[in-house]
Amino acid sequence: RLEGVFDLVGEVSHSLEESREALKQRLNELAILNEAAQHSTSSLSISQILESILKLLQEKIGVDHCSIRLLDEDGVLRLESYLGPELLPQQELDLKPDMSTLVGQCLLERKLISIPDTSQLAPQEVTGLHPAEMQASFILVPLATESQILGVLCAASKQKRFFPPEQLDFYRSLANQVSLAIHNARLYEKIIRFSRELETKV
Predict the structure, then answer these.
(1) Chain center to CA of 90
(2) CA 147 to chain centre
(3) Cα–Cα dist 137/64, whole Å
(4) How many angstroms separate the CA atoms of 202 and 193, rounded?
(5) What is the pTM (predicted TM-score) of this model?
(6) How do residues 121-171 score in pLDDT, each as one tens digit?
(7) Where does residue 112 rank: exposed (0-12), middle (13-18), buried (19+ CB within 10 A)?
């Protein structure tokens, strides 16, 4: 009987420890999302917004590489911002997204794709991604508003299974914030262009 009691106490203690860790993780995620919201609303420069978000991912989450690609008016996905130990050949990574690649699937289906172990990937699946962006594990997160697809956020780690399933909602929330910030910055740019056009006509 005493053994059963000790087992029960051990299980309860373990469960409480897991709950504390989960709560700590959630509070950290909320703090990062709050900081990301501040960065997103403090500037209307798309480049500044993207760079600040990627810095957060590196400094607060500990990803080794992270990047953001945006869809241009010609339907080409272009690398707009990147943080990592090496420079990437931006033009070589331009991609016309389709369903044959993971990046295309992420963008066109608006779905988060998590790859816990890159050793199982086929070469054609990762077209448009640089080897530095894949590492041992990586995730692709769609950037989109209700009416428009905008791009893809990529984060990679040298560790396998760095992005556990319970953290994926955090990345979705972060992507939603980034998407809204990009949308607002583009609206602002359109207003500025329209105002200048009006001034030249007057």
Answers:
(1) 18
(2) 19
(3) 10
(4) 15
(5) 0.82
(6) 887 788 888 888 888 999 999 999 999 999 999 999 999 999 999 999 999
(7) middle
